[in-house]
Amino acid sequence: QVQLLESGGGLVQTGGSLTLSCVASGSIFSLNAMGWYRQAPGKQRELVARIRSGGAKNYADSVKGRFTISRDNVKNTVYLQMNSLKPEDTAVYYCNALSGILDYWGQGTQVTVSS
After folding, report:
1. How far, rounded to the nearest angstrom, does the alpha carbon of residue 39 sit from its chain's CA centroid?
2. Cα separation of 54 and 30, whole Å?
3. In angstroms, rounded to a whole number, what is the distance separating the alpha carbons of residues 12 and 86?
4. Are 94 and 105 in contact (CB under 8 A)?
5. pLDDT tens, position by position, 30-64
């Protein structure tokens, strides 16, 4: 079992920045990848960014150049640095951890970007 605890959401103006954090605990040695998804009202949950155990990263086209995913293996924490935020980035952001075929999710943190 893996537990994920997110923090860092909030309200920001267009063009602002936020950093999300996700602390993993439990069977973290088995993780293949960690990432961030988001879900806006009335829309499907979508991948924002992912970092694999070997360090490879991938991003949604809509956030490339603005968002950066990183990790601190000592703190068992994954970060999502979000810059140049837009109103369309407004969503609940979920931390995700992948262990084999098992998916683990955090409780979600709200990010609201005002125009």
Report:
1. 11
2. 13
3. 9
4. yes
5. 788 999 999 999 999 999 999 998 899 999 999 99
Q: What is the DSSP letter of 30?
A: G
- Could you give the percent of the chain with pLDDT greater than 70? 100
pLDDT value, residue 1:
87
- Token couple for 55: 């360090």
Closest to 38 in 3D by CA, of 2, 86, 72: 86
Handedness of CA 53, 56, 61, 64 (dihedral sign): positive
Which amino acid is residue 103, in one-letter code?
Answer: D
Place of tokens 């990432």: 35
Residue 95 near residue 106 (C-beta atoms within 8 A) = yes
